[in-house]
Write a structure and sequence with these properties.
The chain has about 475 residues and is mainly alpha-helical. About 50% of the residues lie in helices and about 10% in strands. The chain is built from 20 helices and twelve strands. The chain has a three-stranded parallel β-sheet. Helix 12 crosses helix 13, helix 16 crosses helix 17 and helix 17 packs across helix 19. It is elongated and about 105 Å long. The structure holds one RNA strand of 76 nucleotides.
RNA sequence: GGCCCCGUCGUCCAGUGGCCUAGGACGCCGGCCUUUCAAGCCGGAAACGCGGGUUCGAAUCCCGUCGGGGCUGCCA
């Protein structure tokens, strides 16, 4: 039987890198094994769900190229793929378990439970549910519910007992049921909990492999026992280590972690993010760092995933993004940079402006790590009112700069063909006559022409800017008194 | 506290008893190239948490210890 994997995000927040990596590993394993990748929405937390988060997550998955074969929006043979559409199914499953004696109504109120939990903790006892309602006889319990008394449904864990299972990543894991309380299946208002909905869905959708975050490892015995009670076959589990922030704690917004769509907006390439995320807990083996999705599909195996958590390293992601940007054909680089450029410039480019960008694109591409950086590199080509950087302004106010630029203006008057070769020949000749090094002599010119001490190569920049604009900028500084 | 998981350079990854004088990548430091910045090239510092075993031989196997993380909800 072929593999069926799912990712089941809860729309309670934007898609973060942890979710993205879990999705990636599920997707890779499904593709590697020729199986099916499913996207399900686990939206049983009605207090925190927001439609915009679901949209963000699906958008992020698509942007990353993690297309799903079955699931929300795409559809499939199993109905809705959104848990909020399946509440009646979960309630029915819970009631069946009650009838079968595998679950029972619990009349304890949240307030009572909270109080007992506090007492237990104060007394040093385990804080989990003590199971008292399990002793109520079924007929009596049914009568009380019939009479309208609110009850949650709890799963009756077998006691004594233990659950042993083999995690694909961690090997054999044993948990004694003494440490697993009778957890809630159905809330007293009839809504399912995550445990119930997720497990019922995994059974109904015939999920073969559950690859999810390590935070769910302690819940796995519950899911296994519930699956068995439901008459389903237990999937193979693989618990992926969490991604940590620099402080060693689970990565979160506190660490400045951004959502996937925010990375997109900052100018990261999906392939770079995929490559980077693949390396968090896995590698294709050997010394390779940069590799394609096809390589990953060919080699990926959940069993090879690292056991220990990985720290998210923004600097390495940035480096990798630069690698992917430089690997782009220049035309593709331009196409991808286009929206970021116009956004950064705050205007859309006219055809002749686009040609100017085209003339510089190769040089810009080499020094771009994030697409959103492109605008600042070429801003001087599209704006006349340059705001010099403080460093540039300082150099421009130097009296020596004014006299140098005056000489530059004079020398440039003789340039017939305004191209970078001619400009280079002319300016190098001038600097030689003046006894100035290129390092010394060119920075003032760069400051005047680009408004910055850091720019793409100067001669090309001047060539693309054009004779008139270049001379105007040089003269403006040369004319200063002093 | 209890339960579970984990432990190779600062970080990510390679390593599955001898090929390890522990390799690659990011970052860092130094140098080269150079019109600035990048890119590129060369070089450097930098790790098997600790202690016991097992073995002719341990980063690799076992035990302990210490450290870190997760869970401990009518959240997921």
């Amino acid at each position: 039987m072929s593999s069926r994997l799912r990712i089941a995000p809860s729309p309670t927040g934007a898609m973060h890198v942890g979710t993205a990596r879990t999705a990636l590993f599920n997707w890779l394993y499904a593709r590697h094994t020729g199986g099916t990748f499913i996207v399900r929405i686990d939206d049983t937390d009605e207090d925190r769900n927001e439609p915009r988060f679901e949209a963000d997550i699906l958008e992020g998955l698509r942007w990353l190229g993690l297309e799903w074969d079955e699931g929300v929006e795409t559809g499939g043979p199993h109905g809705s793929y959104r848990q909020s559409d399946r509440y009646s199914r979960y309630a029915a499953a819970a009631e069946e378990l009650v009838l079968a004696g595998k679950a029972y109504p619990c009349f304890c109120t949240p307030g009572e439970l909270e109080e007992r939990r506090r007492e237990a903790e104060a007394a040093g006892r385990p804080p989990g549910y003590d199971g008292r309602c399990r002793n109520i006889d079924p007929a009596g319990a049914a009568a009380r519910r019939e009479a309208g008394e609110a009850a949650a449904i709890r799963f009756a864990m077998s006691r004594p007992g233990q659950t042993v299972f083999t995690d694909l990543i961690r090997g054999e894991i044993t948990v004694d049921h003494d440490h697993v309380d009778d957890f809630v299946l159905l809330r007293s208002d009839g809504r399912p909990t995550y445990h119930l909905a997720s497990t019922v869905d995994d059974v109904d959708y015939e999920i073969s492999h559950v690859a999810r975050g390590e935070d769910l490892l302690p819940s796995t015995p519950r899911h296994i026992r519930l699956t068995l009670a439901l008459g389903g076959s237990v999937p193979t589990y693989a618990h992926i280590p969490l991604i940590h922030g620099p402080d060693g704690k689970r990565l979160s917004k506190r660490h400045g972690a951004r959502g996937v769509t925010e990375y997109r907006d900052a100018g990261y390439l999906p392939d770079a993010i995929i490559n980077y995320l693949s390396l968090l807990g896995w590698s294709p083996g050997g010394d390779v760092t940069v590799f394609s999705m096809a390589d990953s599909i060919a080699r990926f195996d959940l069993a090879d995933v690292q056991k220990n958590p990985a720290v998210f390293d923004q600097a390495k992601l940035d480096w990798m993004n630069g690698e992917y940007i430089r690997a782009l054909p220049v035309g593709e680089f331009m196409r991808r940079a286009h929206p970021y450029l116009e956004d950064g410039l705050g205007k859309s480019l006219r055809p002749e402006e686009w040609e100017r960008f085209e003339a510089m694109a190769g040089l810009v591409q080499e020094r771009t790590r994030l697409l959103a950086e492109v605008a600042d590199q070429v801003r001087f080509l599209f704006e006349d009112d340059l705001q010099p950087t403080p460093e540039a302004a300082k150099l421009l106010s130097d009296p020596a700069t004014a006299s140098l630029l005056a000489a530059v203006v004079t020398a440039l008057a003789d340039v017939v063909d305004w191209n970078h070769e001619q400009l280079e020949t002319t300016l190098r000749g001038l600097l030689e006559n003046l006894g100035l090094s290129a390092r010394k002599g060119l920075q003032p010119i760069r400051a005047a022409v680009t408004g910055s001490l850091v720019s793409p190569p100067l001669f090309e920049s001047m060539a693309v800017l054009g004779r008139d604009a270049t001379l105007t900028r040089l003269k403006a500084v040369a004319a200063r008194p002093g």
